[in-house]
Write a structure and sequence with these properties.
single chain
């Protein structure tokens, strides 16, 4: 398993993906800056507050990195099936299911770490921007972290689990577009779910249900689809 992990990390190309994460975070900073400046300078708008801005951060981080996770899944897994390059690896004396599991673990961990970095950088940015330029309504209170930290951790956990759905549908269809489209549908469904919660995040029962359903379909995919090469 360790050998497979080292092999797949080389194929993963960590530095280009880290650069993408940094670019995505900078894009979010630019988006937040435009939003805060617009609400601050337009007399017809209500000034953004910390709570609403944090919710925007959660939405941006989740959307960008969940979609990117589907792109990684399409490139590292679905694409190898479509191009039949996976048959080269399958000809080696390795456990095929372990190989795919390692790929998924790398994608999930990368998504979780990137989202965590995004939350830390963007929350720090809005606090610093407000301190320097008074861009948000009210003042930052350390008590905000009591809400922000659990919300961020739940979102990261949920999205790490949801990265498996592009894999599930993509493997069933053996289709790269299906994997990408699945991520978009997943984002939409998640937003519908959390919009009904006052904290605007998954509850513990919802998170457990998502994990259980995802585990069942992932198990099915590993049993029925991994060894099929079309």
């Amino acid at each position: 398993m360790t050998h497979l992990l080292k092999l797949e990390l080389k194929k993963f190309r960590i530095m280009p993906n880290v650069l993408f994460s940094a670019a995505a975070i900078l894009f979010c900073m630019l988006f937040l800056t435009v939003s805060m400046v617009d609400s601050m300078t337009d007399p017809q708008q209500t000034k953004d507050d910390f709570e609403s801005t944090f919710l925007v951060i959660g939405l941006l981080v989740m959307m960008l990195f969940l979609i990117y996770a589907s792109v990684l899944t399409a490139r590292l897994i679905i694409g190898e099936y479509n191009q039949r390059t996976i048959t080269i690896l399958f000809s080696c004396p390795i456990n095929r299911r372990q190989l795919i599991a390692v790929k998924l673990i790398i994608i999930m961990v990368f998504t979780a770490v990137s989202m965590l970095a995004g939350y830390v950088c963007l929350c720090g940015y809005i606090v610093a921007a407000d301190y320097a330029f008074d861009m948000l309504d009210g003042a930052f209170q350390p008590s905000f972290l009591e809400t922000w930290i659990p919300s961020a951790l739940v979102c990261i956990a949920a999205c790490a689990i949801l990265t498996l759905w592009p894999f599930i549908i993509g493997m069933i269809r053996k289709s790269v577009p299906a994997a990408i489209i699945t991520s978009l549908i997943t984002i939409f469904v998640r937003q519908l779910m959390i919009s009904k919660d006052f904290a605007y995040r998954e509850s513990v029962p919802q998170l457990l249900l998502i994990a259980a359903v995802t585990a069942v379909f992932t198990f099915f995919t590993f049993r029925k689809k991994i060894l099929q090469v079309y």
